[in-house]
Amino acid sequence: MDKLRKHIEEVTPLTDDEFEHIKTFFTLKRVKKHQYLSQEGDEAKFEYLILSGIFRMFHLDGDGKEHIVQFAGENWWMADYQAYFKAKKADLYITCMEDAEVLCLTLEGREKLSAEMHKMEHFFRVKLTNGFVALQRRIISLLAGNPQQRYEEFGRLYPHLMQQIPKKYIAEYLGVSRETLSRLYAK
Which domain covers residue 87, as residue numbers? Predict the structure, then answer.
């Protein structure tokens, strides 16, 4: 739980009593490589804070092709947010790419924490805002960037992921073939 406290205190300071209360809302889960946190059709009960490991979120189209929406590593939050916030069935898959640990938070817990503690409402708002900014940047990159630009931006923003994620998944995320990615790596 030390990682959780450090993570929150990057945004807002906490007293020991405040943190003792906050941590009662989280549940630790250990996840094995290739295990799913969520699959299409599941109830999205949790938002996850990644303590260790790397996760891949993707959508399967009608032809069974994967479309990677997001990777998440340590200190990133991840959920099928449409399902989580709107109480709908999940459309996205979340799978573990290496053994990992996550903290699970229910929407009810998140709402209660936000109502009880202004600091936590502020914390969640900052994290949600950062997520929206990253999503907007990704959409613009996909719409307006060429493969070279997308590759360079991914490497600049996520250098640690470039080394840890198999190239086939990076290619899918960037929307390029594995051959194109190989050419980009060679440059």
Answer: 2-107
